[in-house]
Protein backbone atom coordinates (compact mmCIF):
# COMPACT_ATOMS: atom_id res chain seq x y z
CA UNK A 1 0.00 0.00 0.00
CA UNK A 2 2.99 2.27 -0.41
CA UNK A 3 1.48 4.24 -3.25
CA UNK A 4 -1.28 5.58 -0.98
CA UNK A 5 1.19 6.75 1.62
CA UNK A 6 1.30 10.39 0.43
CA UNK A 7 -2.42 11.17 0.66
CA UNK A 8 -3.20 9.32 3.86
CA UNK A 9 -4.79 11.46 6.54
CA UNK A 10 -3.60 10.83 10.05
CA UNK A 11 -6.30 8.82 11.86
CA UNK A 12 -5.08 7.74 15.26
CA UNK A 13 -7.16 5.18 17.10
CA UNK A 14 -9.70 7.15 19.14
CA UNK A 15 -11.29 4.89 21.71
CA UNK A 16 -11.09 1.12 21.87
CA UNK A 17 -12.76 -1.86 20.24
CA UNK A 18 -13.94 -4.91 22.15
CA UNK A 19 -16.28 -7.84 21.64
CA UNK A 20 -19.82 -7.27 22.93
CA UNK A 21 -21.33 -10.07 25.01
CA UNK A 22 -24.86 -10.57 23.71
CA UNK A 23 -27.04 -13.50 22.71
CA UNK A 24 -27.46 -12.03 19.21
CA UNK A 25 -26.72 -14.56 16.47
CA UNK A 26 -24.27 -12.35 14.59
CA UNK A 27 -21.11 -11.25 16.36
CA UNK A 28 -21.13 -7.62 17.46
CA UNK A 29 -18.50 -5.32 18.90
CA UNK A 30 -18.40 -2.28 21.10
CA UNK A 31 -16.55 0.85 20.08
CA UNK A 32 -15.91 2.89 23.21
CA UNK A 33 -14.99 6.56 22.91
CA UNK A 34 -12.88 8.48 25.42
CA UNK A 35 -16.07 10.30 26.54
CA UNK A 36 -17.44 6.92 27.66
CA UNK A 37 -20.03 6.85 24.85
CA UNK A 38 -20.32 3.45 23.22
CA UNK A 39 -21.38 2.31 19.79
CA UNK A 40 -22.45 -1.28 19.12
CA UNK A 41 -21.11 -2.23 15.70
CA UNK A 42 -21.16 -5.19 13.32
CA UNK A 43 -18.10 -7.24 12.35
CA UNK A 44 -17.93 -5.36 9.02
CA UNK A 45 -18.05 -1.97 10.74
CA UNK A 46 -15.32 -3.13 13.11
CA UNK A 47 -13.13 -3.90 10.11
CA UNK A 48 -13.84 -0.42 8.71
CA UNK A 49 -12.76 1.16 11.99
CA UNK A 50 -9.59 -0.95 12.19
CA UNK A 51 -8.62 -0.11 8.62
CA UNK A 52 -9.29 3.55 9.28
CA UNK A 53 -7.10 3.45 12.37
CA UNK A 54 -4.35 2.05 10.14
CA UNK A 55 -4.71 5.14 7.97
CA UNK A 56 -6.64 3.68 5.02
CA UNK A 57 -8.89 5.94 2.93
CA UNK A 58 -12.64 5.24 2.51
CA UNK A 59 -12.24 4.05 -1.10
CA UNK A 60 -9.52 1.57 -0.17
CA UNK A 61 -11.47 0.40 2.89
CA UNK A 62 -14.61 -0.30 0.80
CA UNK A 63 -12.53 -2.19 -1.77
CA UNK A 64 -10.83 -4.32 0.90
CA UNK A 65 -14.08 -5.18 2.64
CA UNK A 66 -15.77 -6.05 -0.64
CA UNK A 67 -12.77 -8.22 -1.57
CA UNK A 68 -13.21 -9.97 1.79
CA UNK A 69 -16.71 -11.06 0.75
CA UNK A 70 -18.88 -8.26 2.27
CA UNK A 71 -19.93 -5.95 -0.50
CA UNK A 72 -19.96 -2.38 0.85
CA UNK A 73 -19.99 0.94 -0.95
CA UNK A 74 -17.69 3.90 -0.37
CA UNK A 75 -20.85 5.72 0.73
CA UNK A 76 -21.40 3.16 3.51
CA UNK A 77 -17.82 3.63 4.72
CA UNK A 78 -18.12 7.42 4.47
CA UNK A 79 -21.37 7.52 6.43
CA UNK A 80 -20.10 5.18 9.12
CA UNK A 81 -16.89 7.15 9.59
CA UNK A 82 -18.83 10.44 9.66
CA UNK A 83 -21.08 9.05 12.38
CA UNK A 84 -18.07 7.86 14.38
CA UNK A 85 -16.39 11.26 13.99
CA UNK A 86 -19.58 12.87 15.31
CA UNK A 87 -19.51 10.58 18.34
CA UNK A 88 -15.83 11.24 18.94
CA UNK A 89 -16.68 14.91 19.16
CA UNK A 90 -20.13 15.01 20.76
CA UNK A 91 -20.81 11.66 22.43
CA UNK A 92 -24.26 10.07 22.35
CA UNK A 93 -27.30 12.19 23.12
CA UNK A 94 -29.75 10.35 25.31
CA UNK A 95 -33.36 11.48 25.17
CA UNK A 96 -34.28 8.99 27.90
CA UNK A 97 -38.01 9.55 28.37
CA UNK A 98 -38.26 8.00 31.83
CA UNK A 99 -35.78 10.30 33.45
CA UNK A 100 -36.72 13.94 33.19
CA UNK A 101 -34.83 15.59 35.97
CA UNK A 102 -31.39 14.38 36.91
CA UNK A 103 -29.07 15.87 39.49
CA UNK A 104 -25.63 14.62 40.35
CA UNK A 105 -25.11 13.92 44.06
CA UNK A 106 -21.66 12.31 43.87
CA UNK A 107 -19.26 12.57 40.96
CA UNK A 108 -17.64 9.46 39.40
CA UNK A 109 -14.33 9.70 41.26
CA UNK A 110 -16.08 9.95 44.65
CA UNK A 111 -18.35 7.04 43.73
CA UNK A 112 -15.37 4.95 42.63
CA UNK A 113 -13.59 5.65 45.92
CA UNK A 114 -16.68 4.74 47.94
CA UNK A 115 -17.37 1.70 45.74
CA UNK A 116 -13.80 0.45 46.25
CA UNK A 117 -14.28 0.76 50.01
CA UNK A 118 -17.23 -1.65 49.84
CA UNK A 119 -16.05 -4.04 47.11
CA UNK A 120 -15.03 -6.57 49.78
CA UNK A 121 -18.75 -7.24 50.29
CA UNK A 122 -18.55 -9.40 47.14
CA UNK A 123 -15.73 -11.62 48.41
CA UNK A 124 -16.68 -15.22 49.25
CA UNK A 125 -16.30 -14.87 53.05
CA UNK A 126 -18.41 -11.68 53.02
CA UNK A 127 -21.12 -13.40 50.96
CA UNK A 128 -21.24 -16.24 53.52
CA UNK A 129 -21.36 -13.86 56.50
CA UNK A 130 -24.08 -11.77 54.84
CA UNK A 131 -26.14 -14.85 54.01
CA UNK A 132 -25.90 -15.80 57.73
CA UNK A 133 -27.05 -12.30 58.73
CA UNK A 134 -30.08 -12.57 56.41
CA UNK A 135 -30.96 -16.04 57.76
CA UNK A 136 -30.59 -14.84 61.38
CA UNK A 137 -32.83 -11.88 60.56
CA UNK A 138 -35.50 -14.11 59.02
CA UNK A 139 -35.44 -16.41 62.08
CA UNK A 140 -35.63 -13.42 64.44
CA UNK A 141 -38.42 -11.83 62.40
CA UNK A 142 -40.66 -14.88 62.17
CA UNK A 143 -39.84 -15.94 65.74
CA UNK A 144 -40.93 -12.57 67.14
CA UNK A 145 -44.35 -11.84 68.60
CA UNK A 146 -46.73 -10.28 66.01
CA UNK A 147 -46.94 -6.94 67.85
CA UNK A 148 -43.16 -6.58 67.52
CA UNK A 149 -43.42 -7.01 63.76
CA UNK A 150 -46.33 -4.57 63.46
CA UNK A 151 -45.71 -1.93 66.13
CA UNK A 152 -47.86 1.12 66.73
CA UNK A 153 -46.69 3.84 64.36
CA UNK A 154 -46.74 7.35 65.76
CA UNK A 155 -45.83 10.32 63.52
CA UNK A 156 -42.36 10.62 65.07
CA UNK A 157 -41.76 6.91 64.44
CA UNK A 158 -42.81 7.37 60.81
CA UNK A 159 -40.54 10.38 60.36
CA UNK A 160 -37.44 8.59 61.70
CA UNK A 161 -38.40 5.51 59.67
CA UNK A 162 -38.56 7.56 56.47
CA UNK A 163 -35.15 9.10 57.14
CA UNK A 164 -33.65 5.64 57.77
CA UNK A 165 -35.30 4.41 54.57
CA UNK A 166 -33.89 7.26 52.44
CA UNK A 167 -30.43 6.48 53.79
CA UNK A 168 -30.84 2.89 52.56
CA UNK A 169 -31.58 4.15 49.03
CA UNK A 170 -28.07 5.53 48.96
CA UNK A 171 -26.71 2.20 50.27
CA UNK A 172 -28.59 0.47 47.45
CA UNK A 173 -26.73 2.58 44.86
CA UNK A 174 -23.46 1.88 46.68
CA UNK A 175 -24.26 -1.81 46.13
CA UNK A 176 -24.21 -1.22 42.36
CA UNK A 177 -21.07 0.91 42.57
CA UNK A 178 -19.18 -1.61 44.74
CA UNK A 179 -20.20 -4.46 42.41
CA UNK A 180 -19.01 -2.42 39.45
CA UNK A 181 -15.58 -1.95 41.07
CA UNK A 182 -15.49 -5.63 42.04
CA UNK A 183 -16.06 -6.90 38.48
CA UNK A 184 -13.52 -4.48 37.02
CA UNK A 185 -15.72 -1.62 35.80
CA UNK A 186 -15.58 2.05 36.73
CA UNK A 187 -18.83 3.28 38.25
CA UNK A 188 -20.20 6.65 37.16
CA UNK A 189 -21.98 9.31 39.20
CA UNK A 190 -24.74 8.74 41.75
CA UNK A 191 -27.61 11.10 41.24
CA UNK A 192 -31.22 11.92 41.99
CA UNK A 193 -34.02 11.59 39.49
CA UNK A 194 -37.78 11.22 39.21
CA UNK A 195 -38.87 8.12 37.34
CA UNK A 196 -42.57 8.29 36.35
CA UNK A 197 -43.58 9.86 39.68
CA UNK A 198 -41.17 8.01 41.94
CA UNK A 199 -38.25 9.96 43.39
CA UNK A 200 -35.25 7.71 42.89
CA UNK A 201 -31.49 7.62 43.15
CA UNK A 202 -29.45 6.14 40.32
CA UNK A 203 -25.90 5.03 39.77
CA UNK A 204 -24.62 5.38 36.23
CA UNK A 205 -22.97 2.04 35.44
CA UNK A 206 -22.75 2.43 31.67
CA UNK A 207 -19.12 1.34 31.89
CA UNK A 208 -20.16 -2.29 32.44
CA UNK A 209 -21.41 -2.71 28.86
CA UNK A 210 -17.90 -3.75 27.92
CA UNK A 211 -17.93 -6.58 30.49
CA UNK A 212 -19.21 -10.13 30.03
CA UNK A 213 -22.88 -10.63 30.77
CA UNK A 214 -22.51 -12.57 34.03
CA UNK A 215 -20.49 -9.68 35.45
CA UNK A 216 -23.14 -7.20 34.32
CA UNK A 217 -25.77 -9.26 36.15
CA UNK A 218 -23.68 -9.04 39.36
CA UNK A 219 -23.78 -5.24 39.05
CA UNK A 220 -27.54 -5.30 38.29
CA UNK A 221 -28.12 -7.33 41.46
CA UNK A 222 -25.72 -5.28 43.62
CA UNK A 223 -28.37 -2.81 44.79
CA UNK A 224 -30.76 -5.53 45.92
CA UNK A 225 -27.89 -7.35 47.63
CA UNK A 226 -26.92 -4.33 49.75
CA UNK A 227 -30.55 -3.47 50.36
CA UNK A 228 -31.36 -6.94 51.69
CA UNK A 229 -28.37 -6.87 54.08
CA UNK A 230 -29.51 -3.51 55.44
CA UNK A 231 -33.08 -4.79 55.81
CA UNK A 232 -31.71 -7.81 57.71
CA UNK A 233 -29.68 -5.60 60.07
CA UNK A 234 -32.74 -3.38 60.59
CA UNK A 235 -34.80 -6.48 61.40
CA UNK A 236 -32.25 -7.78 63.93
CA UNK A 237 -31.89 -4.42 65.69
CA UNK A 238 -35.55 -3.41 65.32
CA UNK A 239 -36.98 -6.65 66.74
CA UNK A 240 -34.47 -7.20 69.55
CA UNK A 241 -34.30 -3.57 70.69
CA UNK A 242 -37.98 -2.95 70.00
CA UNK A 243 -37.24 -0.07 67.63
CA UNK A 244 -40.44 0.66 65.67
CA UNK A 245 -38.92 3.13 63.18
CA UNK A 246 -36.66 0.41 61.80
CA UNK A 247 -39.60 -1.97 61.46
CA UNK A 248 -41.44 0.69 59.45
CA UNK A 249 -38.31 1.26 57.31
CA UNK A 250 -38.20 -2.51 56.58
CA UNK A 251 -41.73 -2.32 55.15
CA UNK A 252 -40.61 0.47 52.82
CA UNK A 253 -37.44 -1.42 51.84
CA UNK A 254 -39.39 -4.58 51.01
CA UNK A 255 -41.79 -2.53 48.90
CA UNK A 256 -38.80 -0.98 47.09
CA UNK A 257 -37.21 -4.39 46.48
CA UNK A 258 -40.44 -5.72 44.96
CA UNK A 259 -40.84 -2.60 42.80
CA UNK A 260 -37.19 -2.83 41.78
CA UNK A 261 -37.45 -6.45 40.69
CA UNK A 262 -40.38 -5.77 38.40
CA UNK A 263 -38.93 -5.90 34.88
CA UNK A 264 -41.57 -3.76 33.17
CA UNK A 265 -40.38 -0.39 34.40
CA UNK A 266 -36.78 0.53 33.90
CA UNK A 267 -35.59 -0.50 37.35
CA UNK A 268 -33.09 -3.21 38.34
CA UNK A 269 -35.35 -6.07 37.23
CA UNK A 270 -35.33 -4.68 33.68
CA UNK A 271 -31.53 -4.77 33.51
CA UNK A 272 -31.33 -8.19 35.16
CA UNK A 273 -33.67 -9.55 32.49
CA UNK A 274 -31.89 -7.62 29.75
CA UNK A 275 -28.50 -9.07 30.67
CA UNK A 276 -29.91 -12.55 31.37
CA UNK A 277 -31.53 -12.62 27.89
CA UNK A 278 -28.41 -11.05 26.40
CA UNK A 279 -30.55 -8.41 24.70
CA UNK A 280 -28.98 -5.00 25.10
CA UNK A 281 -32.06 -2.89 24.48
CA UNK A 282 -34.91 -4.97 25.82
CA UNK A 283 -37.71 -2.48 25.20
CA UNK A 284 -36.86 -1.75 21.58
CA UNK A 285 -35.76 -5.25 20.57
CA UNK A 286 -39.00 -6.63 21.99
CA UNK A 287 -41.00 -4.25 19.80
CA UNK A 288 -38.97 -5.32 16.76
CA UNK A 289 -39.44 -9.06 17.33
CA UNK A 290 -43.14 -8.53 18.00
CA UNK A 291 -43.51 -6.52 14.81
CA UNK A 292 -41.85 -9.26 12.78
CA UNK A 293 -44.09 -11.87 14.43
CA UNK A 294 -47.23 -9.87 13.62
CA UNK A 295 -46.32 -9.35 9.98
CA UNK A 296 -45.38 -13.05 9.73
CA UNK A 297 -48.74 -14.07 11.19
CA UNK A 298 -50.46 -11.71 8.73
CA UNK A 299 -48.55 -13.46 5.94
CA UNK A 300 -46.51 -10.45 4.78
CA UNK A 301 -43.04 -11.88 5.37
CA UNK A 302 -41.20 -14.73 7.04
CA UNK A 303 -40.56 -14.33 10.76
CA UNK A 304 -37.01 -13.11 11.21
CA UNK A 305 -35.21 -12.29 14.39
CA UNK A 306 -31.58 -11.50 15.12
CA UNK A 307 -31.95 -13.57 18.31
CA UNK A 308 -31.80 -17.35 18.82
CA UNK A 309 -35.21 -19.11 18.95
CA UNK A 310 -35.35 -19.35 22.76
CA UNK A 311 -34.48 -15.67 23.21
CA UNK A 312 -37.05 -14.69 20.57
CA UNK A 313 -39.72 -16.73 22.36
CA UNK A 314 -38.80 -15.10 25.69
CA UNK A 315 -38.97 -11.66 24.08
CA UNK A 316 -42.47 -12.38 22.79
CA UNK A 317 -43.55 -13.58 26.25
CA UNK A 318 -42.04 -10.44 27.71
CA UNK A 319 -43.91 -8.29 25.18
CA UNK A 320 -47.21 -9.95 26.15
CA UNK A 321 -46.53 -9.50 29.86
CA UNK A 322 -45.48 -5.87 29.33
CA UNK A 323 -48.69 -5.11 27.42
CA UNK A 324 -50.74 -6.61 30.26
CA UNK A 325 -48.86 -4.75 32.99
CA UNK A 326 -48.99 -1.39 31.20
CA UNK A 327 -52.71 -1.76 30.36
CA UNK A 328 -53.43 -2.69 33.97
CA UNK A 329 -51.47 0.34 35.09
CA UNK A 330 -53.29 2.62 32.62
CA UNK A 331 -56.71 1.30 33.69
CA UNK A 332 -55.82 1.86 37.35
CA UNK A 333 -54.79 5.42 36.59
CA UNK A 334 -58.00 6.14 34.63
CA UNK A 335 -60.13 4.61 37.41
CA UNK A 336 -58.34 6.64 40.08
CA UNK A 337 -58.83 9.80 38.06
CA UNK A 338 -62.53 8.99 37.63
CA UNK A 339 -62.96 8.45 41.38
CA UNK A 340 -61.20 11.70 42.23
CA UNK A 341 -63.26 13.70 39.72
CA UNK A 342 -66.37 12.09 41.21
CA UNK A 343 -65.42 13.28 44.71
CA UNK A 344 -64.74 16.78 43.38
CA UNK A 345 -68.13 16.92 41.61
CA UNK A 346 -70.04 15.48 44.58
CA UNK A 347 -68.51 18.11 46.85
CA UNK A 348 -68.95 21.05 44.54
CA UNK A 349 -72.43 20.28 43.11
CA UNK A 350 -74.46 20.70 46.35
CA UNK A 351 -72.71 24.02 46.96
CA UNK A 352 -73.77 25.24 43.54
CA UNK A 353 -77.37 24.05 43.73
CA UNK A 354 -78.05 24.62 47.46
CA UNK A 355 -75.94 27.68 47.95
CA UNK A 356 -74.49 26.60 51.32
CA UNK A 357 -70.84 27.17 52.10
CA UNK A 358 -68.36 24.28 52.29
CA UNK A 359 -67.69 22.89 55.75
CA UNK A 360 -64.11 22.43 56.91
CA UNK A 361 -64.28 18.65 56.39
CA UNK A 362 -65.69 19.06 52.87
CA UNK A 363 -63.02 21.57 52.05
CA UNK A 364 -60.34 19.15 53.18
CA UNK A 365 -61.85 16.33 51.09
CA UNK A 366 -61.99 18.63 48.10
CA UNK A 367 -58.34 19.62 48.58
CA UNK A 368 -57.23 15.99 48.74
CA UNK A 369 -59.33 15.08 45.70
CA UNK A 370 -57.95 17.97 43.62
CA UNK A 371 -54.39 17.18 44.72
CA UNK A 372 -54.90 13.49 43.93
CA UNK A 373 -56.44 14.27 40.54
CA UNK A 374 -53.51 16.53 39.62
CA UNK A 375 -51.00 13.87 40.66
CA UNK A 376 -52.90 11.23 38.68
CA UNK A 377 -53.03 13.46 35.60
CA UNK A 378 -49.31 14.04 35.91
CA UNK A 379 -48.71 10.28 36.10
CA UNK A 380 -51.05 9.73 33.13
CA UNK A 381 -49.11 12.31 31.11
CA UNK A 382 -45.82 10.56 31.87
CA UNK A 383 -47.26 7.18 30.87
CA UNK A 384 -48.62 8.70 27.70
CA UNK A 385 -45.19 10.11 26.93
CA UNK A 386 -43.75 6.65 27.27
CA UNK A 387 -46.53 5.33 25.03
CA UNK A 388 -45.72 8.01 22.45
CA UNK A 389 -42.11 6.99 22.68
CA UNK A 390 -43.11 3.43 21.73
CA UNK A 391 -44.79 5.06 18.72
CA UNK A 392 -41.43 6.61 17.89
CA UNK A 393 -39.83 3.17 17.91
CA UNK A 394 -42.43 1.90 15.49
CA UNK A 395 -41.89 4.91 13.22
CA UNK A 396 -38.17 4.27 13.35
CA UNK A 397 -38.68 0.64 12.35
CA UNK A 398 -41.00 1.61 9.51
CA UNK A 399 -38.47 3.95 8.01
CA UNK A 400 -35.99 1.09 8.15
CA UNK A 401 -33.52 2.99 10.30
CA UNK A 402 -31.93 1.74 13.45
CA UNK A 403 -32.09 4.15 16.32
CA UNK A 404 -29.61 5.39 18.80
CA UNK A 405 -30.72 3.47 21.86
CA UNK A 406 -32.35 5.82 24.33
CA UNK A 407 -32.69 3.22 27.08
CA UNK A 408 -29.25 2.00 27.83
CA UNK A 409 -28.01 2.11 31.37
CA UNK A 410 -27.86 5.89 31.36
CA UNK A 411 -24.71 6.19 29.28
CA UNK A 412 -25.98 5.04 25.96
CA UNK A 413 -24.90 2.29 23.70
CA UNK A 414 -25.55 3.46 20.19
CA UNK A 415 -26.32 1.22 17.27
CA UNK A 416 -24.45 1.40 14.02
CA UNK A 417 -26.79 1.26 11.03
CA UNK A 418 -25.62 -1.65 8.95
ZN1 LIG B 1 -30.76 -0.58 41.71
- What is the H-and-E element order? EEEHHHEHHHHEEHHHHHHE
Radius of gyration: 26 Å
Total separate domains: 3
Strand content: 5-15%
Number of helices: 13
Tell me the quaternary state.
single chain
Q: Summarize the main sheet.
A: 4 strands, mixed
Task: Give the distance, in angstroms, between the N- and C-terminal Cα atoms.
Answer: 27 Å
- The number of E-state strands comes to 7
Side-by-side strand order of the widest sheet: 1-2-3-7
Bound small molecules, by name, code or SMILES, are: zinc ion
Task: Provide structural commentary.
The chain has 418 residues and is an alpha+beta fold. The protein has 3 domains: 88 residues, no CATH class; 167 residues, no CATH class; 68 residues. Helix content is 62%, strand content 9%. The longest helix has 46 residues. The N terminus is likely disordered. The chain binds zinc ion (ZN). Zinc ion binds next to helix 7.
SSE topology:
Layout: E1 16-19, E2 28-32, E3 38-42, H1 43-53, H2 58-67, H3 74-90, E4 99-106, H4 108-118, H5 124-143, H6 146-149, H7 155-182, E5 190-195, E6 198-203, H8 213-240, H9 244-261, H10 268-277, H11 282-297, H12 309-354, H13 360-398, E7 413-415
Parallel strand pairs: 3-7
Antiparallel strand pairs: 1-2, 2-3, 4-5, 5-6
Helix pairs in contact: 1-2, 2-3, 4-7, 5-8, 7-8, 7-9, 8-9, 8-10, 11-12, 12-13
